[in-house]
Amino acid sequence: MHSRVTSHLGIPACEKDAKALQFIEEMTRNVDSVQEKVLAEILSQNANTEYLQRFKVGGATDRDTFKSKVPVVTYEEIQPDIQRIANGDRSPIFSSHPISEFLTSSGTSAGERKLMPTIQEELDRRQLLYSLLMPVMNLYVPGLDKGKGLYFLFIKAETKTPSGLLARPVLTSYYKSDHFKTRPYDPYNVYTSPNETVLCVDSFQSMYSQMLCGLLMREQVLRLGAVFASGLLRAIHFLQLNWQQLAKDIATGILNPRVSDPSIRECMSKILKPNPEIAEFIIKECEGQNWEGIITRIWPNTKYLDVIVTGAMAQYIPTLDYYSGGLPKACTMYASSECYFGLNLNPMCKPSEVCYTIMPNMCYFEFIVHDPTNPATISRDSPPCLVDLADVEVGKEYELVITTYTGLCRYRVGDILLVTGFHNSAPQFKFIRRKNVLLSIDSDKTDEAELQNAVENAAAILQSYDTSVVEYTSYADTKTIPGHYVIYCELLIKDPTNSPSHEVLSQCCLAMEESLNSVYRQCRVADNSIGPLEIRVVEKGTFEELMDYAISRGASINQYKAPRCVNFTPIVELLDSRVISAHFSPAAPHWTPEKRRV
Ligand code: AMP
Q1: Which of 48, 118, 353, 471 could form a disulfide with 543 if both were Cys (CB 3.0 to 4.6 A apart)?
Q2: For residue range 140-174, what is the model confidence (pLDDT) as tens digits?
């Protein structure tokens, strides 16, 4: 008999899990007092920073003083201060602790990734949230210590700011940290991918070697994952393209020479031995046209997919179901470059029911009531009413505002969340959407202004052909792997003898891609996680039909505006039935890890 205390959450799988679950219980039972303590800690730690002094917080650590003096801000408002740090100012601007590096968010500002200054100790806080995930999962899926996880994890290119601070995505920073690299052995958290395969910046070599390990250890794999659904589908697509070579490597025990990274070659030499049986199996499963259920065929012991399918990633659920025969999809956590927020306490639930419990120890959370019909415009003269974590109400939507140990104060993350219930006194949130995001395929987030700008740049090319864009809308087409942006355009061709050719319209596609933000271009160029942009030219009058359709469904004629993005199937079908011609971007847009000089 064991003496482990049964948590309100369930029976822990081991002593270590019991501690983690107890921690979750403690935090979620005392949300308000933990939040008060977190804010006091942040404010006293950062009392001498320029930022808090600018607003005359005067060393106060209580909520009332903080809320009355410190404004709610967006990235753009603090960007000049962030730039000072990037340029080498080492004075305590936001944080009393030295800035260890910049995390580059997939959210962009003026077309470039937002830079989030971070501090060393924040890694521990992230690690703490990670350490809670498996104990929760073990409550629902027994036996995860009897096998491995096949996780497709990648690092991305790093850059340095003018003052020499590293700038890289948060996961790259985490995978390169000792927290990940020298993590202690945990039987419940063993991966098929050796660190060397994850830590290679060349995405082909990294993916190839991770897939190879996954195939070699196919029977031991109990769970399959990537951060986002798009990443897992990219891995399946990679298998479609490379299974012959992978099978050859397995048959012969000789690693594909395209994998040239010496540390990968060295670690693979210990893992890769000739195994004709697995090689034949891979050939048999992959050579047919039918890829339905391929995941469970190749990895028959998989119990669930570990991928985020909430928010923009929900568009991939049908494809994941197709390849996996409808395996459960576990969305385990909700996090960002700014701060990690919380976890899903019921990770095997249906995607539509996923809600994240925000952990009150991560940072100080506030919420702006979100009224979709009246978006909150915040000015110093009319401060909005912000609600504390413990005071949000079930059924209401809120915009997330955070104050972090790294020194962000009352910072608007841009996420809209709906309160669905509580675990103890901790509210649980459904992720509704990110504000102002029109199109997203992978980690890219394109807003309406960026799309408008892209269309204007394409329209400038069409001007020489006496052609203008009458109306346009867009669609994130995820039926192809990788997915791609589709722009439906209705054109007015004033001089049919000089109408734009197929080549010209293809150049318009490229011009649009060139104008999109750097995360989009990186996905296109470095990650190959987005396919070439497509323009579909539709017949004259199509957008009027679209309006008729909207009006027949109750839209007001006076207020009707063409939607700048569509995803309702009947509308997409209507548009597709009116397509005259389709054109794809003929080349990759420009992208380097460095900022674009304009
Ligand atoms: P980044 O700053 O690039 O790390 O992106 C963070 C953003 O990704 C968040 O602010 C959310 O908009 C989105 N995100 C993170 N986790 C989830 C999740 N579990 N479900 C939906 N969206 C998420």
Answers
A1: 471
A2: 999 999 999 999 999 999 999 999 999 999 999 99
Cβ atoms of 409 and 125 within 8 Å: the answer is: no
Tell me, in angstroms, the distance from the centre of ligand 1 to residue 232's CA.
Answer: 17
pLDDT at residue 563, as a whole number: 92
Cβ count within 10 A of residue 87: 11
Calculate how far, in angstroms, residue 336's C-alpha sits from the geometric centre of ligand 1.
5
Cα separation, 18 vs 26, in Å, equals 12
What's the pLDDT band for 2 if we cut at 50, 70, 90?
very low
Q: What residues flank ligand 1, with Cβ below 6 Å?
A: 105-107, 170, 308, 310-311, 331, 334-337, 413, 415, 431, 434, 443
Q: Give the residue, by CA position, lying nearest to ligand 1 atom 6.
A: 336
Cα separations in angstroms, 34 against 207, 228, 360, 588? 41, 30, 6, 49
* Spatial distance between the Cα atoms of 528 and 203, rounded to a whole number of angstroms: 9
Report the nearest-CA residue for atom 13 of ligand 1.
336
Residue with the nearest Cα to atom 8 of ligand 1?
Answer: 336
Provide the pairing of β-strand 484-493 with 467-477. antiparallel
Preceding amide of 328 cis, omega within 30: no
What is the average pLDDT score of the chain? 95
C-alpha of residue 444 to centroid of ligand 1, in Å? 11
Is the pLDDT assigned to residue 245 strictly greater than 60? yes
> What is the mean predicted confidence (pLDDT) over 9-20?
95
Alpha carbons 348 and 138: distance in angstroms, whole number: 11
Instruction: Label residue 546 exposed, middle or buried (CB < 10 Å: 0-12, 13-18, 19+).
Output: buried
| Phi, psi (rounded to 5 degrees) for 503 | -65, -40
Cα of 80 vs centre of ligand 1, distance in Å, is 24
pLDDT 10s digits, 466-489:
999 999 999 999 988 899 999 999
What is the side-by-side order of every strand in the sheet holding 484-493?
A: 467-477, 484-493, 534-538, 579-584
**Residue 553: other Cβ atoms inside 10 A:** 10
Rounded to the nearest angstrom, the distance between the alpha carbon of 116 and the centre of ligand 1 is 14
Contact 230, 482 (CB under 8 A): yes
pLDDT greater than 70 at residue 47 = yes
Cα 69 from Cα 169, distance rounded (Å): 32
pLDDT for 1 beyond 50: no
